[in-house]
Amino acid sequence: MQLNEAVSARLKELLRGRNMTQYQLYIKSGVPKSSIGNIVNCAYDSVKLRVIHEICQGLEINISDFFDSPYFDETNLEP
Questions:
Q1: Within a 13 Å sphere around the CA of 15, how many CA atoms are in the beta-carbon half?
Q2: Confidence at residue 79, expressed as pLDDT on a 0 to 100 scale
Q3: CB 76 within 8 A of CB 70
Q4: Could you write out the three-class secondary structure of 41-77?
Q5: Which of 15, 29, 42, 70 gives the lowest tally of CB atoms within 10 Å of its CB?
Q6: What value, to the nearest 5°, has the Cα angle with vertex 77 and ends 66 and 55?
Q7: What's the predicted TM-score (pTM) here?
Q8: What is the pLDDT of residues 10-57, one digit of tens each?
Q9: Are 36 and 26 in contact (CB under 8 A)?
Q10: Which helix (H) or strand (E) holds 28?
C-alpha cells in the first residue's frame, strides 16, 4: 500500500467511525472540501502534515491517534 492510500483509508475509517461526512469535516477543520475529497480519492501523491493536523483537529483527535493504525505499519507500506 502506498502512503497516500494509507492516509485515505485511515481518513475514511475515521469518518465512518464518527458517522461524519466530508462536508462536516470541512466545516469543523477548515480544510477545503476539494482537498478532503482529493485525499479520500488518492488524487495526491502526498499530503502535507499541516493538512493532516487540521483534519485531526476537525476530528477532535491527536495526530498520533491518526497514525495509530495498522495502515501505517512499515510491513504494510511500499517503499
A1: 20
A2: 78
A3: yes
A4: CCCCCCCCHHHHHHHHHHHCCCHHHHHCCHHHCHHHC
A5: 70
A6: 25
A7: 0.92
A8: 999 999 999 999 999 999 999 999 999 999 999 999 999 999 999 999
A9: yes
A10: helix 22-29
